[in-house]
Design brief:
heterodimer, A: 74% helix, B: 297 residues, mainly alpha, 12 helices
């Protein structure tokens, strides 16, 4: 290395961080521009309370997101239920029970590979799966139930991976201690593994839900409607036991729309007035995503501080 | 009457079965995907020959003379993914080197979540931003840029996949042992020289795996392209023209009200199968590259 080389090299170490920071700054500017752009475009509607309690309409100034956000809540409730129902036990099995031997070991290996692969499948493929299986072969229709199941499949890999990571952080001593006083494996899981990993599982759930809440493509693919001017029936009734199974089934099978689909519909329309609605609804959705991610970040920090083994 | 211990043992066995079943169910998702894509694609290929599907250069399923050649959709998909990579790889590497070799812990703690958040933004919001903000701005710079084009969605996707191209690259560079860097510094190399000649080559499989996953994500992305790239199957490499991607076509058909079993309905499964195969190949390469990282040190 001659002298000239050395000089240019040491300069590079001063100049590079500047360029690197500019690169990072570009990303932040991109994000801020996006947020400010949709805030300005949608401001008029965002401050109008009737926007949140009106149904979609042919007239842009009367259109609102009531059926959109109610649909999003119901679909997400289903998606969270189904994804936890399968995801947590699957994660517990792979981390806590897996024997890794013989035929069962081979199946475990396949389950593991499969979950890694599922995480990388394009979301729209899950839409085709739901269209072909849930809508047409199981005849569940373009319903809240179908949508919940579809998004649950999308959330599943994230839940399993986070459950496993949370369980892996629990030291071996805890298990040994439980076994030493005569606890069975299930006792240990119920009384120790699950409570200690709950924070990590919750973080995974929020991250998965924040991705699913903005998903549009798979729900468009199953044929979700864009114009819904009614709310699904309430499953609650006035007389005991206050919950009617028929009404609940009607709710599950009810057609729906969700916020992202409402936005997609508005943004695809030629009239500029609908684009104000799209921006306003987009901002609501974006804020929901930001809040969920912030919550997950907070939980993660808190969990790390709570259990220091 | 069973004893306390026996009941506990039975419950323990039962819960093992429950957990195993939950794990086993996840396999059925993949089986379901493969089954549904194959079953409906086979029906599709009974009416349209595989030869036409793979050699015809036009995709006109809604015209009177229907032609099913998938190349316009594949070219549209790869054109957008290529533009995204052209934006994302230099920017990603620039940021990754900065974060892994130069930035303080505090800057890193702020930067990483922000970059990861790029992927959490609902894609329909990106779509809105692309169509109504990025495209108009680009139109004032690029002559003859149409309202629907592949340039704007490509650029936005380039930013969207930064969690793969910047964050994952940074993770692999961070994984290079510090002692290798120290050895390079001891020989008089600067940080940048060390990063370029030592750290990046050592972390290359992880970095490339991130790029491939990012490309796979861009190929499978739907809403940005459905909103901002147009609905026009077009065998072109001109980024100013409207095009259609594989995902865009599936959305277009799904938006209409098609009877179950019609040729258009079946065609989205054939396109989906092609997309699934492409994504599977990309992901397998990325997984293989990542498995090589562990062997390195």
């Amino acid at each position: 290395m001659n002298k000239k080389d050395k000089i240019s090299d040491s300069k590079a170490d001063i100049i590079y961080p500047i360029f690197g920071f500019i690169g990072f700054f570009l990303v932040i500017s991109f994000l801020v521009t996006l947020i400010i752009d949709i805030l300005i475009d949608g401001y008029e509607k965002l401050v109008d309370p009737s926007f949140y309690v009106s149904y979609p309409s042919r007239f842009p100034d009367k259109a609102g997101i009531l059926s959109g956000w109610v649909g999003t809540m119901l679909v997400m409730a289903g998606a969270i239920f189904w994804s936890l129902l399968i995801g947590i036990p699957a994660g517990i099995y792979l981390e806590e029970y897996a024997t890794k031997r013989g035929i069962i070991g081979k199946i475990e290996h396949i389950i593991e590979l499969n979950i890694n692969n599922l995480a990388a499948v394009p979301a729209i493929i899950y839409g085709l799966l739901a269209l072909g299986i849930f809508v047409y072969r199981f005849k569940l229709g373009e319903s809240i139930l179908t949508a919940g199941l579809t998004l649950a499949i999308l959330m599943l890999p994230v839940i399993v991976v986070n459950t496993r990571e949370a369980i892996r952080r629990i030291p071996r001593d805890i298990r040994e201690g439980a076994y030493a006083v005569g606890a069975t494996k299930w006792d240990t899981v119920r009384d120790h593994i699950l409570p200690y990993s709950l924070g990590g599982i919750l973080t995974g759930l929020i991250i998965a839900a924040s991705r699913a809440i903005g998903e549009t493509a798979p729900l468009v693919t199953i044929g979700a409607l864009t114009f819904i001017a009614f709310l699904p029936p309430s499953p609650f009734v006035s007389e005991f036991p206050f919950l009617s199974p028929e009404k609940a089934w009607e709710l599950f099978m009810s057609p729906f729309t969700v916020l992202p689909i409402q936005i997609f519909n508005w943004v695809s329309r030629p009239q500029a007035a609908f684009q104000i609605n799209a921006a306003a609804a987009g901002f609501v959705l974006l804020i929901l995503t930001v809040l969920m991610n912030a919550l997950a970040y907070y939980f993660r920090q808190k969990v790390r501080r709570k259990y220091i083994w | 009457m069973l004893t306390f211990i026996t009941r506990k043992k039975i419950l323990d066995r039962f819960m093992l079965a429950v957990f195993f079943t939950a794990g086993f169910i996840t396999i059925f998702i993949t089986v379901g995907i493969v089954y549904v894509l194959l079953a409906d694609s086979i029906k599709f290929f009974q009416e349209v020959s595989i030869k036409e599907f793979l050699t015809e250069k036009e995709w006109t399923p809604v015209f009177a003379t229907k032609k099913f050649g998938i190349w316009p959709l594949i070219s549209g998909t790869f054109l957008i993914a290529a533009i995204a990579m052209v934006v994302s790889i230099p920017l990603g590497i620039l940021i990754a080197i900065y974060l892994s070799e130069y930035a303080s812990v505090r800057v890193k703690e702020i930067a990483k979540p922000i970059i990861e958040f790029m992927e959490a933004i609902p894609t329909v919001v990106y779509g809105y931003f692309t169509l109504l903000f990025v495209t108009p701005i680009l139109q004032s710079i690029v002559p003859d840029l149409e309202a629907f084009n592949s340039l704007a969605p490509g650029i936005v996707l380039g930013f969207m996949i930064l969690p793969y191209t910047a964050s994952m690259a940074e993770d692999s560079m961070k994984g290079v042992p510090q002692r290798i860097r120290e050895a390079s510094y001891a020989l008089g190399a600067t940080k940048l020289r060390t990063a370029v000649t030592i750290v990046i080559p050592a972390a290359i499989s992880g970095i490339v795996a991130g790029f491939i996953l990012g490309a796979s994500r861009a190929i499978g992305e739907t809403m940005v392209v459905a909103i901002a790239a147009g609905m026009y199957p077009n065998l072109t490499l001109d980024p100013r023209e409207p095009i259609q991607t594989m995902t865009g076509y599936i959305v277009q058909v799904a938006l209409g009200d098609l009877p179950y079993g019609s040729i258009e309905y079946l065609s989205i499964f054939a396109v989906g199968l092609a997309l699934f195969i492409i994504a599977f190949i990309f992901n397998s390469i990325a997984l293989w590259l990542r498995s090589r990282i562990r062997e390195a040190y």
